[in-house]
Fold these 2 entries.
Entry 1:
Amino acid sequence: MSRDAPRCWAVVPAAGSGSRMGTQLPKQYLELAGATVLEHSLRALLGCAQVAGAVVALPAGDRRAAALPLMRACDNIRLVTGGAQRSASVLAGLEALAAGAAAGDWVLVHDAARPCVRPRDIAGLIARVTASGIGGILAEPVVDTLKRATTQGLVAATLDRQRLWRAQTPQMFRLDQLRQALRDAARAGRSVTDEAAAMEMAGYPVQLVAGSPRNVKITVAADLELATWYLERRDEHDSESDMPCT
């Protein structure tokens, strides 16, 4: 990336309580394969040379993150206070970035609870988006047969899955465009569950970039076993041992 080219940054919303996990400890601080869920997610992002730094949005009063080994080892991770909703936490991260980043820089928003994302998939997303100039998301084509249900729990219809994808993260967009899209959605009272939805509402095209089934999101306790299995079987290309902290 040339000196004049837009830089890439990461925003990691981690202000949720993770109530569906059934644990007292927020899921981003659960330990898997020798590190916390949050540290694995950050290492994957910062393992890409194109990512200059990261902002993590935390619950108010959170003191756990600052004590993590990764935070002490890296000086390009900034901690900010997030909001009650994911979109508010992402916006808080973007506002923090805007103080020092260029409006046209790229931002990759990644779930703290997706620790198994591969750096190679992040790099592939960055390459596709920067080459085309069109924001995009990692996603996975749907392979299961999908049913639409009635309110009584009966099958109403079988859906055509050929054009259906499961959205993943990172989701990558221009800093200024995503910030404004989230502001507009909040001002209009619109609920957005991911950044792509806000960009779609704002009229921007969003491209789908094929990700990996291993990019699982830890939501319930059963997901921990699968995530651990993936993390313990990283190949040499996915190694995080030489993750740069600049």
Entry 2:
Amino acid sequence: MDILLANPRGFCAGVERAIAIVEKALELFGAPIYVRHEVVHNKYVVDNLRAKGAVFVDELDDVPDGGTVIFSAHGVSKAVQAEAARRKLRVFDATCPLVTKVHLEVARQRTQGREVVMIGHKGHPEVEGTMGQSGDGMHLVEKVGDVPRLTFSDPERVAYVTQTTLSIDDAATIVGALRERFPAIVGPKKDDICYATQNRQDAVRKLAESCDVVLVVGSPTSSNSNRLREVAAGMGCAAHLIDGPDEIRAEWLAGKRSVGLTAGASAPEILVERVIHRLREMGAAKVVAQEGEPERVSFPLPKLN
């Protein structure tokens, strides 16, 4: 059995920036540093930061007065920002700049008097943060079947944005349904789905064409990792999402000649290496890296003081 490695895979610039902000805050101010929600959706990363002194909380109520809090890469609502300011918490914002771009698009469209459709998954922190950029005029659509139920005060004044980690194909289908029902709807000048999500989905499609089974390294809470598994499965390839090597099941590999391996944007390369080691123990022979363009995107850290 051969292992074919997707390229690109794993950490994106937004994830690297968010982790670096937490680590830098711990270095400068010492533990505990509070983080609202998981800074990125990966168990290994969160456990590692927790061991260094990060305290992950669900709400700001769990942060003591005078505490330092970091907003996760998924972004937060205006209400959360206002509450942190009211309590005079020291705040560092690890929101991915590409998520911030979506927030700014919402603000721009609302200022122009348009109601905004958010395409995304209910309950996901990024969706909650984006929906909370405006006190009204926001509508959530999760699937094509939600589109017929939408009503607006003025169907000629409507815009849409999307969660950055959606399946490209699924998002395009929903946008198509929105345009059919509301021909005047406007979208962002550039797609909201981030470069890393798109690149990893393109790579996993290529992987699925060449492999008998695809393993996606990522946590169950990771939207982009789940989408990678779905993309591979949608191409008729057996695909499994795993948090690490211990979750690989021998029956997935029985009789297989090639296994594809990729990782979500919040999964570190060390987990990929551990999975490769385990696959070698289970009989894998050579490792072949897919050809792919290197990603050269990087985001600067905010000033921490």
